[in-house]
């Protein structure tokens, strides 16, 4: 070998080592000791290996395997083929291929294999599977098979050519089979016989990795297979461990951890794609049991359908970007630039034109005044999307608030539909529909939206219609008269409402000479220097507006350093976001010192917009955004929230949230389970409760056990001397006011009213108090503070309520009403009123005592949550009334416009009377526990004030119902037929329990699996829930409670979950298989039960003997098929059969479809006897005993479609001979 050839080999080898860093050896399972080796021959294989247990692969059990030298573990037959083919192969060969390529271990390297049940290996495998597959928490490995290719080279290579080391690990518990691929180092892809380079092993027909079932439908290929990217596979992962891929392989499809598979291709969790070439079917990987949700959705007029692997994608033809920077300058989506110095909160951009295919979003900015200056700057950015409110405060790095809770980055919401992450110097919020919002925590924010939002936005960023001339529009569509008018027109509510509109004409202070200096190349003119680092961007983005904004900033603040750097940065970031390369401008301008990077990181003018983090160690590999300036971690370190740490100091992922190493956090909202993030990503959780002197609450964005501090509000007879936060003001004596009202989110609702001073009370007469606490009403005074009534009755003091939650006691000079740990109200004979309140009500109060949030500047908040600086408006909003409806009507009659007949209607059983009617009320059993008087009175007053608005009635009744529920009051059991106080009829008809509020609503329930709701046209567009909105449009029924589109049926169900039916009274009578589900309200548990179904069970349910009877074209329901699609009933039949008795489920599904057909005028009954569904009554009648429906008749399909004449009886002529009269077993 000559010198040049030798040098070429070593250069190639060293290059490969530099380019492909080996992963830590700990990635590999142990090998060598006691392992068997394959023969060291080209294309060789092990002998047939008989396994100790059967291994399931694509649903088929196998008992023998071969370890093939060419990177393959095959079942039943060996695989000697050296050139890989693209999957699927349909020749019957089933095999696992961690790296199918032309290996020659005869030249270099060893291939080891071992079947083991070693406890240490089983423990490690168990831990790995539980960690990688979140739904396999109970998995326990009983068998492991390890195959290792160590430092093997390729055919045609030599002892000095590059080598690969990789591993396949098969894990089983006897039922489930998993495969781990571990890639320690990969340096070559191809043997020379397959076209590879003899020195590097690259090129030609490159390696294939994945699974082949031997037929057309069962296959899976790892990303990069048979492409040059396969040499980088050691840097990829689906379990956040670079070099490792994990799969569940026993089902009909390969189930990758943290993702889905479709057409043999890997899809990341939350990934969106279109499954057809024309982009008409939009899908999303949900990662619930490999579930993919699809719906009809075409590309918008501003998108183009493009191929994406085996799928398609709707890519925006264009993107609009709005930026806010400096002393705020606003550059709209259409390029209009203006300067506005308001320090309030403003709407930047929102989806304002209703369109079913466009998701809603809103972006608001809160500004603040620069200290001692006339100009403002950004203080925080708020993004509302997908039902989340995301707050990015000034100075933020690595943390944001999501729904008021401080959370470390990165954050993934709704299975990847919303991602929040550090992007260069900014925090980024990115959605799957193309919205990208960034804020650098200092002065620069950007909002990018796809072209599909053309003509659909509003706010200071404009309407995005390609016309900058109409971006000066107010919300009412009229042109603004000035910048001030424009800015103020888009002002939005913010808790810190003390702000102003800022300067208009006197914002800058430069003379002509200074201004000319700032326009020069040493200052703002640097932006358009022809030989500068930003010159290339000038041909795409006109720098003129940015130059003028820069001069504006320097002249307004007279700061030649930081502000100049920020002005240049704003233009540079706009350029980089468009993918335009820029030079290191900070070095040339001396702005490097203005960037402070965290320890173990350094500044880069072009770093990844999606940096690798502990939560996603390969994030940069899938980043589609151009590079941006920012801080990047040094080699060997990775970003953990706001710090760069060694890999072994990374934190933990728990329920989609990232926690740093050593961080304690609460896993439950009520502070009963606390967890600790430990080394290795392990989370240790333990039971804990707050101490007696602590309360579980959220303070400053953090949930925890905080000292049970109390705050004090102090009032005299005509002044608030001290609100909870320290404000003071006077209030008149001739009106009654609400002193305190807490928000409904707290379980202990409190309300304190102070009555107007009575005209005949004299100077010493005290104003009366009404206190609602512990669901009881306490009244004090009216003449003196010694008069006390509880629920309208005089009581002896001290008074102790039997619930233990209320005490009333007196001293010589005061009366105290107390609910320990919650509130203490002390009313002195001198007229002073002390209200001591627990901090559990932080951010949760209203009334004269103010909004308790440690901020005295926002005390004047109205009942609707908005705040004002007008004391008169504030006082008027909290005026209330006295209890007078047991005698004179006083203020209440006045509230009803002195219309006594109207008041009489509102007091009837058809209105508020339903709350306290003693003769026929649904709340009869609650009256002795929760005082109805206050709720009844409130209901009357709200109806009077609203002019009889029925939603006010519903809300008032619901509040009392909620109080009853919190007091654990059970509903009243009745026999049907029954008529409620609201003239609602409850009766049985043809086996259904009917709740009838004719003519508007009728509800039918068969007691098992059929519920039918009929509503009148009068309710069109007035309903919501799982049954949709009844507006004639099928496409908008798949939305959440907040009106947002959902990605799965589970998410849809969870969004409409209520608190009213958490347990089933009949659960004890259910079969063992269904009992856990009846006592649960966890939608995902149903998915897990379905996943537990073995394939044989599913196939049996799908077959002709069971659920296929629903779709049989010659079957029972053939006349109905043209009117009602049976497929949803068929799918429900075999899926529900996973956790129901099979025959009972079949009969129930037949009944459900049969009843639906009957409502369309098609009656079929022959299935009852032919399917022997009568015998199911024996089981069903047991389920129905002691049922809450009392004497309701058996379901229609059990009663032989013969409605009985007596309640709870089955006709003697029933086609079910097993039943006797009365529904007992025959």
Give the key terms.
1226 residues; alpha+beta; 7 domains; 8-stranded antiparallel sheet; 21 helices; 67 strands; 17% helix; 27% strand; disordered N terminus
Query: How big is the Rg?
Result: 36 Å
Total of domains: 7
> How helix-rich are the residues, as a percent range?
10-25%
Mean pLDDT: 82
Strand order within the widest beta sheet: 23-22-21-34-33-32-31-30
Distance between the termini: 97 Å
**What structural class do the secondary elements suggest?**
alpha+beta
For the biggest sheet, the summary is: 8 strands, antiparallel
Q: Which strand-content bin applies to the residues?
A: 25-35%
Query: What is the number of helices?
Result: 21
Principal-axis shape equals globular
DSSP E strands, number: 67
Give the low-pLDDT segments: 1-21, 882-890, 1059-1081, 1083-1087, 1175-1215, 1217-1226
Give an account of the 3D structure.
This protein is an alpha+beta fold. Strand 3 (60-68) and strand 4 form a beta hairpin. The protein has 21 helices and 67 strands. The chain folds into seven domains: 25-264, no CATH class; 281-315, no CATH class; 318-490, no CATH class; 512-594, no CATH class; 710-880; 889-973; 985-1056, no CATH class. Residues 1-21, 882-890, 1059-1081, 1083-1087, 1175-1215 and 1217-1226 have low confidence and may be disordered. The chain has an eight-stranded antiparallel beta sheet, with helices on one face. Strands 24, 25, 26, 27, 28, 29, 35 and 36 form an eight-stranded antiparallel beta sheet that branches. Helix 12 (933-946) packs antiparallel against helix 13 and helix 18 packs antiparallel against helix 19 (1142-1159). The termini are far apart.
């Amino acid at each position: 070998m000559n010198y040049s050839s030798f040098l070429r080999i070593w250069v190639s080898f060293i290059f490969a080592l530099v380019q492909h860093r080996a992963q830590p050896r700990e990635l590999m399972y142990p090998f060598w000791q006691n392992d068997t080796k394959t023969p060291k021959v080209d294309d060789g294989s092990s002998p047939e290996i008989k396994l100790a247990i059967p291994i399931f692969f694509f649903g088929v059990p196998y008992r023998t395997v071969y370890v093939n030298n060419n990177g393959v573990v095959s079942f039943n037959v060996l695989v000697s083929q050296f050139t890989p083919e693209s999957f699927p192969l349909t020749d019957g060969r089933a095999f696992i291929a961690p790296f199918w390529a032309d290996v020659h271990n005869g030249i270099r390297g060893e291939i080891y294999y071992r079947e083991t049940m070693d406890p240490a290996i089983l423990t490690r495998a168990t831990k790995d599977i539980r960690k990688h597959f979140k739904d396999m928490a109970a998995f326990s490995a009983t068998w492991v098979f390890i195959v290792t290719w160590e430092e093997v080279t390729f055919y045609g290579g030599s002892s000095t050519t590059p080598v690969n080391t990789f591993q396949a690990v098969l894990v089983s518990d006897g039922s489930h089979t998993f495969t781990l691929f571990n890639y320690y180092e990969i340096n070559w892809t191809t043997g020379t016989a397959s076209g590879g380079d003899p020195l590097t092993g690259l090129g030609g027909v490159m390696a294939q990795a994945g699974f082949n079932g031997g037929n057309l439908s069962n296959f899976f290929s790892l990303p990069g297979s048979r492409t040059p990217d396969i040499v980088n596979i050691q840097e990829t992962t689906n379990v956040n461990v670079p070099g490792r891929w994990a799969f569940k392989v026993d089902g009909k499809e390969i189930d990758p951890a943290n993702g889905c598979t479709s057409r043999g291709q890997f899809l990341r969790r939350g990934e969106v794609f279109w499954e057809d070439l024309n982009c008409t079917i939009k899908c999303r990987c949900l990662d619930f049991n490999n579930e993919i949700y699809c719906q009809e959705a075409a590309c918008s007029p501003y998108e183009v359908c493009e191929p994406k692997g085996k799928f398609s994608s709707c890519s925006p033809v264009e993107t609009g970007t709005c930026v806010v920077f400096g002393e705020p300058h606003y550059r709209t989506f259409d390029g209009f630039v203006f300067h506005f110095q308001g320090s309030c909160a403003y709407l930047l951009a929102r989806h304002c034109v209703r369109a079913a295919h466009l998701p809603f979003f809103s972006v608001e900015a809160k500004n603040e005044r620069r200290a001692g200056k006339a100009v403002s700057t950004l203080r925080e950015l708020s993004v509302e999307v997908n039902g989340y409110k995301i707050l990015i405060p000034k100075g933020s790095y690595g943390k944001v608030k999501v729904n008021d809770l401080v959370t470390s980055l990165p954050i993934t919401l709704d299975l990847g539909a919303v991602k929040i992450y550090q992007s260069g110097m900014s925090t980024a919020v990115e959605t799957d529909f193309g919205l990208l919002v960034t804020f650098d925590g200092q002065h620069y924010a950007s909002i990018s939206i796809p072209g599909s939002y053309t003509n659909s936005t509003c706010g200071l960023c404009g309407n995005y219609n390609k016309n900058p001339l109409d971006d000066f529009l107010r919300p009412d569509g009229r042109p603004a008269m000035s910048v001030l008018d424009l800015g103020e027109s888009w002002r939005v509510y913010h808790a810190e409402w003390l702000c102003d509109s800022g300067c208009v004409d006197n914002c800058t202070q430069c003379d002509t000479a200074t201004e000319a200096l700032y326009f020069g190349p040493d200052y703002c003119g640097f932006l358009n220097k022809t030989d500068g680092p930003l010159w290339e961007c000038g041909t795409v983005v006109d720098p003129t507006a940015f130059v003028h904004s820069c001069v504006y900033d320097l002249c307004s603040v007279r700061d030649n350093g930081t502000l100049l750097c920020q002005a240049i940065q704003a233009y540079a970031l706009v350029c980089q976001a468009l993918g335009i390369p820029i030079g290191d401008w900070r070095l040339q301008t001396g702005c490097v010192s203005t960037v402070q990077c965290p320890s173990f990181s350094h500044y880069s003018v072009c770093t990844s917009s999606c940096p690798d983090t502990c939560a996603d160690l390969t994030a940069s590999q899938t980043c589609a955004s151009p590079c941006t300036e920012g801080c990047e971690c040094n080699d060997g370190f990775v970003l953990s929230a706001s710090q760069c740490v060694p890999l072994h100091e990374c934190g933990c992922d728990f329920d989609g949230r990232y926690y740093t190493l050593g961080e304690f956090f609460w896993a439950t909202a009520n502070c009963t389970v606390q967890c600790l993030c430990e080394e290795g990503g392990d989370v240790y959780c333990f039971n804990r409760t707050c101490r007696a002197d602590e309360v579980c609450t959220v303070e400053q964005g953090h949930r925890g056990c905080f000292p049970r501090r109390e705050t004090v509000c102090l009032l005299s007879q005509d002044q608030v001397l001290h609100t909870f936060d320290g404000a003071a003001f006077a209030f008149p004596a001739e009106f009654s006011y609400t002193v305190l009202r807490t928000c409904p989110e707290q379980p202990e609702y409190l309300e304190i009213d102070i009555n107007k001073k009575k005209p005949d009370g004299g100077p010493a007469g005290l104003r009366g108090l009404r206190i609602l606490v512990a669901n009881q009403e306490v009244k004090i005074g009216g003449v003196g503070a010694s008069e006390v009534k509880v629920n309208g009755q005089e009581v002896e003091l001290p008074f102790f309520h039997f619930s233990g939650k209320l005490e009333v006691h007196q001293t010589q000079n005061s009366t105290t009403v107390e609910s320990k740990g919650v509130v203490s109200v002390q009313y002195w004979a001198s007229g002073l009123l002390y209200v001591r309140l627990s901090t559990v009500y932080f951010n949760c109060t209203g009334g004269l005592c103010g909004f308790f949030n440690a901020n005295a500047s926002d005390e004047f908040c109205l009942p609707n949550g908005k705040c004002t600086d007008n004391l008169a408006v504030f006082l008027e909003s909290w005026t209330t009334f006295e209890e007078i409806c047991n005698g004179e009507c006083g203020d209440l009659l006045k509230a009803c416009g002195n219309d006594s007949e109207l008041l009489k209607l509102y007091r009837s059983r058809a209105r508020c009377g339903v709350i306290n009617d003693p003769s026929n009320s649904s709340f009869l059993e609650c009256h002795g526990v929760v005082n109805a008087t206050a709720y009844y009175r409130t209901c009357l007053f709200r109806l009077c004030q609203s002019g009889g608005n029925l939603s006010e009635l519903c809300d008032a009744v619901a509040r009392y119902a909620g109080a009853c529920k919190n007091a654990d009051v059970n509903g009243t059991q009745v026999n049907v037929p029954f008529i409620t106080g609201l003239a609602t009829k409850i009766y049985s008809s043809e086996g259904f329990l009917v709740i009838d509020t004719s003519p508007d609503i009728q509800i039918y329930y068969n007691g098992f699996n059929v519920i039918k709701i009929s509503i009148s046209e009068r309710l069109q567009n007035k309903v919501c829930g799982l049954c949709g909105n009844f507006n004639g449009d099928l496409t908008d029924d798949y939305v959440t409670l907040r009106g947002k589109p959902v990605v799965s049926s589970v998410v849809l169900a969870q969004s409409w979950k209520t608190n009213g039916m958490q347990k089933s009274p009949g659960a004890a009578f259910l079969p063992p298989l269904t009992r856990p589900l009846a006592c649960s309200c966890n939608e995902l548990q149903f998915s897990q039960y379905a996943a537990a179904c073995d394939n044989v069970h599913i196939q049996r349910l799908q077959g002709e003997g069971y659920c296929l009877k629903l779709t049989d074209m010659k079957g029972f329901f053939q006349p109905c098929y043209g009117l009602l699609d049976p497929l949803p009933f068929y799918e429900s039949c075999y899926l529900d059969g996973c956790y129901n008795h099979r025959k009972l489920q079949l009969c129930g599904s037949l009944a459900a479809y049969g009843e639906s057909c009957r409502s369309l005028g098609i009656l079929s009954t022959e299935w009852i006897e032919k399917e022997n569904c009568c015998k199911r009554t024996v089981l069903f009648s047991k389920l129905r005993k002691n049922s809450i429906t009392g004497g309701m008749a058996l379901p229609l399909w059990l009663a032989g479609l013969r409605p009985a004449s007596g309640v709870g009886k089955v006709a003697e002529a029933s086609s079910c001979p097993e039943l006797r009269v009365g529904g007992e077993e025959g």
